[in-house]
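Thread: quick sanity check before group meeting

JM: Hey all, I'm pulling together slides for Thursday and realized we never actually wrote out the predicted structure for the chain we discussed last week. Dropping the sequence here so it's in one place. If anyone has concerns about the input, flag it before I start.
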Amino acid sequence: MNARERLIVGLDVPTLGEAEKIVSTLGDDVLFYKIGYQLVFAGGLEFARELAQSGKKIFLDMKLLDIDNTIASGVENIVKMGMSMLTLHAYPKAMKAAVEAARGSDLCLLGVTVLTSMDEQDLIAAGYEYDPHTLVLRRAEQALAAGMGGIVCSAEESAAVRKIVGPNMAIVTPGIRPAGSEKGDQKRVMTPADALKAGSSHLVVARPIVKAADPKEAARVILAEMDAALPA
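JM (edit): ok, ran it. Output follows.
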């Protein structure tokens, strides 16, 4: 894969109008988009379907978690939408139900390990006994066992996760920040080049592109950095 196939631009904006403007501005430079809760609840599901039909790849970031039958039913309909990636929380039963429902399709199921906005104190407050690194690795093992297509984790854990999941599973990394940019609410971040070198296969970038004065130029700078970091 080249950089264009690895960069996922997060359409983390409140309206369809803003999302449409970003996609139009970025044009052919960007192939892959992430659509999450904010846009989904503003009509983003139909927009995701339209983008997929136009040839774009869509990462539907829903972080599903429910009883097995509900997960399976949801995944079956998401497959019909033509999505490329879908997230669910990396709980073994949920992952197994999703894998079975997506069997035979091109949908890449991603297990969310630990949100990049969470650190050890956040996990303790939520009742977990593990530190972020330990919990990420445990969930990576469970995702591999369940037959998932990949996982979502911080770039800080990418190298260790890659050793567990091998060369074929996707490792999708949010919290990517080009050198000099603000972290925002992310606590575990890394530059695009360093994330790829650590073992990430796909990078999710939102604010550094969608909030830039010139989004197209911001995307091109990140793509160039990614290209330089990839093996020749």
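AS: nice. The CA atoms of residues 1 and 73 lie 31 Å apart. Strands lie at 7-10, 32-35, 57-64, 85-89, 108-112, 150-152, 170-173, 202-205.
JM: adding both to the slides.
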